[in-house]
Amino acid sequence: xxxxxxxxxxxxxxxxxxxxxxxxxxxxxxxxxxxxxxxxxxxxxxxxxxxxxxxxxxxxxxxxxxxxxxxxxxxxxxxxxxxxxxxxxxxxxxxxxxxxxxxxxxxxxxxxxxxxxxxxxxxxxxxxxxxxxxxxxxxxx
Length: 141
Hints:
There is one protein chain. With 141 residues, the chain is an all-alpha fold. It has one domain: Four Helix Bundle (Hemerythrin (Met), subunit A), CATH 1.20.120. It has five helices and no strands. α1 packs antiparallel against α3, α2 runs antiparallel to α5 and α4 packs antiparallel against α5. The longest helix is centred in the middle third of the chain and has 35 residues. The two termini are 27 Å apart.
């Protein structure tokens, strides 16, 4: 059972790799116009929603794997805080993407563009930190 859950956990981590690409993808929004911009935002919104769903699966499978292992409490606290931060940032990013998509003319996208870039960058950084602590869990004692 543990091997199957580990497989799901690794598969979920691969799927969440979109968050490492999100800052670069969000930087491209400014250069697009009209329907291309709306379509690209729609794609980012869908990718973010899938990432949020996978984040929940990662949290559950990770909790199961932690219950089967021996990890430092400081590492577990750090992991949970980073997962909660990623969940918060992706939720805020989703709201900004949704607000940008709400206007059919595309004028509201310009107002949301700075926040979309900011939260895309934050999700990329936090996800990179999560990868780091998952790889180097032994640094926590």
